[in-house]
Amino acid sequence: MEGVEEEVERQVHGYQKWQIVAATAAITLTTLAAKDLVSNREDVYESIKNWVFRTGRSIPAVKRRIAESLDNSRKDLEKSMFEDNGLLSVQPPLKTLPPTGWTREQVLQEASNILREGKYEWRDGKISGGAFSGSDDMFTNLLEKIYGLFAFSNPLHADIFPGVRKMEAEIVRMTISLFHGTDEQCGCITSGGSESILMAMKAMRDWSREVKGVEKPEIVACVTVHAAFDKSASLLGIKIRKVPMDHNTCKVNIAAMRQAITSNTVMLVASAPEFPHGIIDDVEKIGALGQQYDVPVHVDCCMGGFILPFMEGAGYPLPPFDFRVPGVTSISADTHKYGNAPKGSSVIMYRSEKYRHYQYFVVPDWPGGIYASPTIPGSRAGGLVAVCWAALVYHGVDGYTETTRKIITTARHIKKQLKLIPEIQLFGDPLTSIVAFTSTNADIFKVGDILGQHGWHLTFIQYPSGLHICLTSLQNSDDFAERFVTDVKKAITEVGVHPGDSTGLGKVYGTAADIPDKFLIGEAAKVFLTCYYETEPSKDEELEEVNDTEGEETTKGI
Ligand SMILES: *Cc1c(COP(=O)(O)O)cnc(C)c1O
Ligand SMILES: *[C@@H]1O[C@H](CO)[C@@H](O)[C@H](O)[C@H]1NC(C)=O
């Protein structure tokens, strides 16, 4: 006690007594007010925090500083986009259509030049996710042929292209069978996991409005749920209530999920598995919650879609995660991930027609005709349907079981080896193809950077910080697990020897973790999106002088 008093005495030395009294009173009042508000409404706390940050950002000096640092991020990004990839060395960028068309040879030549850009050898599997297939030339050639045959077909017009419709119906039916569905279950094809999730959320929002009168829809999901749920919530005017994960298992905290359910809840989400750590939520418990509160339950099996259903056959049984679980009302499964179909397809499934019905969109009185489409696009690529269908029937149950067996064996091997490294901690107990880890002694983002310098392209995860590797059919060499684990060990040693600053992605994530105002991270991410659509680096101009009277607008030049 005495020590504390001395410390306080030392700290306040040099301040006037009234200043201390005033400051103490102010702090106490603010704390009490904040505590009161927090215990009532978490939203109020959020809006106060946002107000404080917004006010801070409108201070001219802060504004100028932000503009400067965003401009620096832009330069860094352009450097990595244009110089590091060697893009400046090919043809000058095309900014207008060629006045006369190129010859077939010219098109092929330029396209193969472009294909050779980039510093990663993605086919050798030193990447996490990103590409799921592409090392099997026979399969690739087959898909090329199939795409060519169907390149100009359009499933929007089923009467003109009846064959594509048949393929599409078969893809949905075959996928449902993998999830222990019967004839009662139904579904649709979409362009990818994000669209499948968007469609399920739209269906459940509209079903809940009509059947249960829910006007202010909310969904409840774990913080680890895929960002596509946030995107869909924002597009559909749905509120997303995030509940914490259990820190040991990384599964959603079921008690917290139960507490977050209200009369406005239109969906509970279970991930099988979630993206950050590859952990499968407790689908049976979430299904039971859904039944108890009469709320639809969506299983996000986008990542797991064409691996989980084959795990039992591959010798790695799992607890049920599909239509066997009562309460599960919709499931998304990506054919363009472990289905090994080229990017651009996914399947959304429903327990019953009564839900799918609310996914559809029709305009009966459009002057262009009676318009009806099942999903987001109007015209669609029949070629993508055809290659997806081809991928499914080419692999068959035995093909997918075999790829699953290889992938899971490698993942389990990596998991076992990583557990033996004292500096490494795994997130939960990953049962599928993603293994996530962190370190208590070494800065994990620096470890990621060093692995990056050695040609590895891992996924950086945050809150808490870590790395993950998502294994695919590309990691098919027998010694892959050994090579990976050896390089992780080397990187940890290197971080210990050269504890300097991070570079690359590690720097980005390290900095992001230190900035409390997430709006700024968002702005920096938008700089990336802007750079993505540049054909050449922007000219270096002086930043425009910031107009100090400019209210809340963000600074020019961002
Ligand atoms: C990939 C993924 C999605 C989104 O799918 P996209 O095809 O990228 O739109 C959703 N959930 C999980 C768990 C995923 O891994
Ligand atoms: C600054 O902004 C204010 C309000 O938008 C405007 O009236 C003024 O002309 C601007 N000044 C300059 C130098 O752009």
Automatic annotation (TrEMBL):
Annotated GO biological process: carboxylic acid metabolic process; sphingolipid catabolic process
Biased composition (Acidic residues): 539-552
Cofactor section: pyridoxal 5'-phosphate
Chain segments carrying region Disordered: 539-558
GO molecular-function terms, A-Z: pyridoxal phosphate binding; sphinganine-1-phosphate aldolase activity
Entry's localization field: Endoplasmic reticulum membrane
Pathway linked to the protein: Lipid metabolism; sphingolipid metabolism; Sphingolipid metabolism
Keywords recorded for this protein, A-Z: Endoplasmic reticulum, Lipid metabolism, Lyase, Membrane, Pyridoxal phosphate, Sphingolipid metabolism, Transmembrane, Transmembrane helix
GO cellular component terms listed in the entry, alphabetical order: endoplasmic reticulum membrane
Membrane listed as a keyword: yes
This protein's record includes keyword Lipid metabolism: yes
Membrane-related topology note: Single-pass membrane protein
E.C. number(s) listed in UniProt: 4.1.2.27
Residues recorded with modification N6-(pyridoxal phosphate)lysine: K337
UniProt family annotation: Belongs to the group II decarboxylase family. Sphingosine-1-phosphate lyase subfamily.
Protein name as it appears in the record: sphinganine-1-phosphate aldolase
Species assigned in the record: Homarus americanus
